[in-house]
């Protein structure tokens, strides 16, 4: 179906395109009767007319869009929650968030040139060339990275190795000396899975614990059962999982194997998804404070647009949520 244009609205309303533009943009200093205004707006609503983002940008001299670039990650409850919070924070300043699920086959420059955003938020680091190209176009750039070394001045760090270390600290503090690790099988999550496992191994070495056996686990009860059986062949009494979804699969596998949680094996996840507290038993997990992350990213966008100082970086993102599973 062809896109409805201002010419269509003008033709249906019996007025000029200039009049349509004046009415729909609430242009001041024009003499247009209230009856004509009502008629034009009614026709625009009936036809489903909406001015293009590019046209709004040309008229106002600026865009109301913030482009959020999501890397090639699976979209689940964690990403959904972060994007929902970020959208709500920026909506308070009449900014709209456009989410782009980035794939390598299309250059990012093609997108930002087409939509002309005021700012671009990356949930992973941009390349130096991408960031420089956007800055030259007058676009504010806010990036987020995983365990960066070094971190760029416009990037926000989410330290995933600390997640793994916190899991081990809790399990070891509860008296567990032989730990296992249940990791994800999704290669798109390697940027998170690698650092989290590194953190688990580092903390085990620091505490003098054996290097944990690692078992890849699909998010199915069958995979969880196979993982529990493999880990229980050794002296493992606690399992740190890549995230809550993997942990829930391990819990399902433990039930199927007749292994009691936490009496025979403790389980800890990451993210504190809504289903974690509904698990049987309720899942102990590491929360990453998505609300604080979204608030910081939105504050960074607004500070960049307003020319204000960079907001303080949150330092208390990780929080242990203790429930019955560990």
Automatic annotation (TrEMBL):
Q: Which GO terms describe its molecular function?
A: DNA-binding transcription factor activity; transcription cis-regulatory region binding
PANTHER family on file: LACI-RELATED TRANSCRIPTIONAL REPRESSOR, LACTOSE OPERON REPRESSOR
For this protein, the record's Pfam families field holds:
LacI (PF00356), Peripla_BP_3 (PF13377)
User: What Gene3D superfamilies has UniProt attached to this entry?
Assistant: 3.40.50.2300, lambda repressor-like DNA-binding domains
Q: What is the superkingdom listed in this entry's lineage?
A: Bacteria
Query: Which residue range or ranges hold the HTH lacI-type domain?
Result: 4-60
What is the protein name for this chain? DNA-binding LacI/PurR family transcriptional regulator
Keywords for the protein's UniProt record, in alphabetical order: DNA-binding, Transcription, Transcription regulation
Matching SMART domains, A to Z?
HTH_LACI
Q: Does the keyword Transmembrane helix apply?
A: no
Q: Does the keyword DNA-binding apply?
A: yes
